[in-house]
Amino acid sequence: MLLIGSETLSANPGKIEAFNGFCTTNFIAEVKASNIITLDQLNEAFLAWVDEEYNRRKHSELGMSPKQRWLKDSSRIEYLDEKKIRKMNPSDNASLSHTTSEAYRR
């Protein structure tokens, strides 16, 4: 499961707005200039754009790219077993989506 932010999102709401603004000015422009016609194509293009453009550019406050920052502490990340989660909370299966796919486990 991919979680972004906290339950309340009150501590750092500007992070989401900054990401949305960056997407609007950069990714949307690429989409408009492309031949994307399906939702699958759009999703594929977005994942590629995030990986190639967003995660590899140097962040002004971090002094490194988001990917470099993620890798710096990647040993501290504990991945959850989706099957175990589903068994523990069967009524909440709808909240577990395809975001646990291999695309997010790279």
Shape: extended
Provide the number of structural domains.
1
Q: Profile the largest sheet.
A: none
Number of helices: 4
Total strand segments = 0
Approximate strand percentage:
under 5%
Structural class: mainly alpha
Low-confidence stretches: 97-106
Distance between the termini: 13 Å
What would the average pLDDT be, to the nearest integer?
77
Topology as H/E string? HHHH
Provide the helix percentage: 40-55%
Radius of gyration: 16 Å
How would you describe this structure to a colleague?
This protein is mainly α. It has one domain (about 15-105). The chain is about 45% helix and about 0% strand. It has helices at about 15-30, 40-55, 65-70, 80-90. The protein is extended and about 45 Å long.
Write a brief caption for the model.
The protein is an all-alpha fold. It has helices at 13-32, 39-54, 66-72, 82-88.
